Amino acid sequence: MNNNLQNSKQQATVIKPRTGILLINLGTPDAPRTREVRAYLRSLLSCDRVLDINPVWRWLLLNLIVLPFRPKKSAKAYQEIWLEEGSPLLVYSQKLKNALALQFSEDNISVEIGMQCGKPTIKSAVDRLRKEECDRIIVLPMYPQYSSSTYGSAVEDLYKEVLHDWNMPQLKFIPPFYSDSRFIGAWARIGLPFLEKKPDHVLFSFHSLPIRHLEKSDLSGNWCKNNHDCCLELVNENRNCYSAQCFHTAKLIAERYNLSADEWSVSFQSRFGREEWIKPDTEMHLARLAENGVKKIVVFCPAFVSDCLETLEEIGIRAAEHFRKHGGEELKLIPSLNDHPEWIHALTSIIRQQLAG
Question: Is 21 in a helix, a strand, or coil?
């Protein structure tokens, strides 16, 4: 009897769940045309984490103000940066996915990317992983700093897709990596050739957010002061504050170059609407720098891991023209992490750390 029991235990099959990796990014229009941009903006701005206002007001704002006018203007901006292969964000994301898939091929781990708005969708990415029999999914929202409108919405969108699955996958989320030394190191390496040319100033431009988003992240209810003073140092009270995380990212990159306090600064771009957003505004800040004698400037955009409309057109084209208009001579946009070998190496290490855990 005992011998039979021991034999049955020895013959028992150990089933190890197969692992997949899901990269989530915001997304992009399918084409640089008004119709496709309108569909993209409708999807993006219908999210109550992005446009966190009364649903009735959100509908009115979208359908009476934003969607009738903004898509045509944005489509022209996309046309300025569109690559032969497609949208830069999608092109670089696919290259990154392919590079990571190669890194994990020997581990029999599949890698997919899903977009919150546009294609490939999060649903299609999850479906492909499930067809590969992945019961465990390591999820990496490609947002270095936490905000409810980006990282938070990515988590919510994914849960909506798997919520009704009969066999729920095991999901493990990699947290925001704004201070991870590997993320910081990749940016420092990519920016080094630009810093070696000794610019007059280094600017770190991050995507802006409405001030109310920062206030809602302040669980204490009395820390957020609506100014930079409460964001300059990352402490326990502001650990969930997007702005404080942005300043911390910039500080860590600046330290890699041993920049003094007057050699670098932080600003925020992509303001939308008339309400109060995080300041200083990037274009206004660039104008002040130029008027104060800064002639050559380099700009990091460490809120974006892939080059997109906000980096290539908003900073590389429009902000550069604005800087020259106010007396500056040269603005150099440092390319984003994209599929740079340093970033692939860093991401591989970050993901393997989660796999080991």
Answer: strand
- Look at the domain 18-176 and name its fold: Rossmann fold (3.40.50)
Residue 224, CA distances (Å) to 22, 53, 135, 216, 244 in order: 34, 20, 41, 9, 10
CB within 8 Å of 152: residues ≥ 6 apart = 49, 146
Q: Which of 211, 225, 230 has the alpha carbon at shortest distance from 271? A: 211
| Residue type for position 159 | Y
181-333: CATH topology: Rossmann fold (3.40.50)
pLDDT at 3 over 70: no
Task: Give mean pLDDT, residues 155-160.
Answer: 96
Low-confidence winner among 74-83, 208-217, 227-236, 288-297 (lowest mean pLDDT): 227-236
Give CATH 3.40.50.1400 domain extents, the chain. Answer: 18-176, 181-333
> What type of residue sits at position 53?
I
Backbone angles phi, psi at 309, to 5 degrees: -55, -40
Q: How far is CA 18 from CA 111, 129, 311, 341, in A?
A: 12, 10, 37, 27
The structure's pTM equals 0.93
